[in-house]
Amino acid sequence: MKWLWLTLSFILVGGVLTWARWADGAANRDWKTVERLVGYPGQTEGDGFKITVPRLDLNVLVHGSWVDPRAGLSSWFAFKPESHGNLLTGEMVLVDWETPRIEALLESNQLTLTSIYRPFNGENPGIERLGFTGSGSRTLLAQEARILLAATSMPASSPLAQNPPSVAQTAFALPLEKILGPAQWEGGALSFSFVSAKAITYEGAEIPDYMGFETSFHFQPDVKKSKIYGQWVLSQEEAKKVIESLMINHIGVTDTHSLLLDLSPQQVFIDFWTEGDPIEIAKFLKEALGKTQLVGWTPGHAQETQQSQTQKRNKNP
After folding, report:
1. Rounded-to-integer distance, Cα 38 and Cα 112, Å
2. Is-contact 47 30, C-beta < 8 A?
3. Are 259 and 267 in contact (CB under 8 A)?
4. pLDDT per residue over 66-85, tens digit each?
5. How far apart are CA 41 and CA 30, in angstroms?
6. At what angle do helices 278-289 and 167-180 cross, to 10 degrees?
7. Contact 278, 191 (CB under 8 A)
8. pLDDT tens digit string along 196-243?
């Protein structure tokens, strides 16, 4: 009888542990709690989650030209479930006077500052992007994200819905997509996204592209000259070639920096800004893309580009 009770006890304990693991996995797949705590909607990315928050409260001019906040001025928070808790990476778009306040909060909570840089030159008001990372429970990380957002001047409101492209926007996009591939409109800017065909690892584990490793180009139409700006994410070898190509074609590099250490291969982030004929600049960027192992990536073509990315990674281990 004693052995029977011991056997039943082991079965009961094993069942409870199995249920707990299942419940935790189910919780990680349900991100509604994160949305509620952060205060903004997000979208699933595989088994992870990302919240993007444009600084709609800001009116930023770069050399006198307005920058659409839904393209070039968005904060973001990316969550990735792990065996013990979650990994969070993110960036915040800040006005100069907000930066010291956010730095002080990072020193007192569970997140670690990883980068501070200026994505533009000659902008008004002055803008900085602040990168950070952290790990822990999903609830704790979401609460920390909410504290950071509350410390800015940004009002608590949901991002505006994206309207279908107008006739003028469709005409603007057509020749550019023939050069650079599929794109999507983010506010008033046409945005192209690219990711590495080779896997990037962080502390030995592959890190998803949505956690800050997407190269992005934004084409913002204007009456006189289009504004083209964005950020490259490249290996160190690729970065040297791309910077040289940008300089030859008179595309201004505004900043270079890193987001995380312990990456393999280590990644270099290159911000750029230029003005001029969008088709000509698209050709310059296409030329620079040819010096990299980046492949196209847009939400509207996710399945197609995921297959392309997987195939290329298999060819480039």
Report:
1. 18
2. no
3. yes
4. 999 999 899 999 999 988 88
5. 13
6. 30
7. no
8. 999 999 888 899 999 999 999 999 998 778 999 999 999 999 999 999
